Amino acid sequence: MKLLPAPVWLSHPVADLEMISTLLQVETTDFAALNAQRETRRVLAATRMEVQQWLAAIRRRSATDGAILAMLGEDAPMIFRAAGTTIAELRTAVQTLPLTGPPGAALQARNALLALGRDLYAGPDRTACAFGERVHVADSEIGKLLIVVDGLASSRPAGWRAQLERAHRDVITAQRISSGGKHPRISREQAVEAIRLTYGIAHTLVLAGAFIA
């Protein structure tokens, strides 16, 4: 898990901050000293607020990363880094599933699926399906994604065929299930399946080199 940058004040020992707090309790009538105490109290209050916000952000990030690992497996951090913003909404889907419910999470998985086709497609306009008699046309993000998968199946060693054939089937299944997010009755299990299928497609594409320019 990648931690957020620590606040600047953490470069100083905690004992020094505690000592400052102790010194502020000393009574004085000196005008300059009083002004110094007021300014120091202001800085310490701002510091406490900053540390609370920083720790809260760390807790939120840890909870999200924990949910991602539990749902998608230990490869997930590497896959999300490799795929970058293309599947950013998939991370959001895992994070918001307990908050916004299955429909929103399923639609976010769908957005990530469409982004895979949109971001990875580089032609041709149509191609014969590597796993059947159909012809895929680049008239939609799903059509573009199927062309990407078929292209990898044609250019990668034979050992990749089974994984890419599964990815090909999963594209169609993930589209069908994630589109169910438009209906409020979609179940949590269906939303989770849409997330996992889309992640599995991204996982295969990353390992197959689709994200290498």
Key features of this structure:
68% helix, mainly alpha, 3% strand, Four Helix Bundle (Hemerythrin (Met), subunit A), 213 residues
Commentary on this structure:
With 213 residues, the protein is mainly alpha-helical. It folds into 2 domains: 8-64; 73-207, Four Helix Bundle (Hemerythrin (Met), subunit A) (Up-down Bundle), CATH 1.20.120. It is 68% helix and 3% strand. Strands 1-2 form a two-stranded antiparallel ribbon. Strand 1 (126-128) and strand 2 (135-137) form a beta hairpin. It is elongated, with a radius of gyration of 25 Å.
In summary, what is this structure?
Helices cover 68% and strands 3% of the residues. With 213 residues, it is an all-alpha fold.
Could you say how many structural domains there are in total? 2
Q: Give the helix tally.
A: 8
Largest sheet: 2 strands, antiparallel
Briefly note the structural class of the backbone.
Answer: mainly alpha
How many whole angstroms does the radius of gyration measure?
Answer: 25 Å
Can you list the strand order of the major beta sheet? 1-2
The number of distinct β-strands equals 2
Distance between the termini: 26 Å
Helix/strand order, N-terminal first: HHHHHEEHHH
What would CATH call the class of the largest domain? Mainly Alpha
The CATH topology of the largest domain, please?
Four Helix Bundle (Hemerythrin (Met), subunit A)
What percent of residues are in strands?
under 5%
Mean pLDDT: 83
Task: Based on the coordinates given, report the CATH architecture of the largest domain.
Answer: Up-down Bundle
Q: What general outline do the C-alpha atoms trace?
A: elongated
Low-confidence stretches: 6-11
Portion of residues within helices: 55-70%
